[in-house]
Amino acid sequence: MLKLYTSPSCLSCRKVKKYFNKYNIPYIEKNILHNKLSRDEIFKMLANSENGFEDIISMRSKIIKEQNIDLDSMKIHELVDYIVANPTILKRPIIVTDYEIQVGYNDDDITLFLPPEIRERECQFCLGPNEDCDYVKALKIE
User: Fold this and answer.
1) Deepest in the core among 10, 58, 67, 77, taking most CB within 10 A?
2) pLDDT tens column, 73-113
3) pLDDT exceeding 90 applies to what percent of the chain?
4) Which uninterrupted H or E stretch holds 63?
């Protein structure tokens, strides 16, 4: 089951939810501002990421700038605790499966979450990125 980490004012989060709903892709949504993240959830994100904290933390975060935090000097467990206490430093949305993570919304990458039978049906005539393909047009969520 997909787990989708969101915040209320996030446009990309709304795009992902619209996409998942369109294709009836089941997911569990967790609003990071209203539901406290667990350390295990953060470690799950990190385990699925390629670049660790760099993939999930927004260095443009207001809290990081205001508090002048040196994330590089923190130990792993300190940084995980900091994220739990300050979830707004996370990039959004974050989509987590048992083996994968996607951060943000990307028209091309989101197709990863389509069930294979839908992907095959939708792309049976589309051999690449083709703007005239009905599938590619359908992915252009507004």
Assistant:
1) 10
2) 999 999 999 999 999 999 999 999 999 999 999 988 898 88
3) 63
4) helix 62-67
Contact between 43 and 76 under an 8 Å Cβ cutoff? The reply is: no
The pTM score is 0.81
Taking the C-alpha atoms of residue 46 and residue 4, their distance in angstroms, rounded to an integer, is: 15
Coil, strand or helix: which one is 7? Answer: coil
CA distance 31 to 93: 10
Q: Which residues are catalytic?
A: 10
Tally of CB atoms within 10 A around 95: 25
Q: How many residues does the chain have?
A: 142
Helix axes 39-48, 76-85, angle to 10 degrees: 120
Strand 94-96 to 101-103 pairing: antiparallel
Domain boundaries, the chain: 2-113
Q: Please write the tens of the pLDDT for every residue from 109-127.
A: 898 888 877 777 766 555 5
Residue 96: strand pairing partners: 3, 101
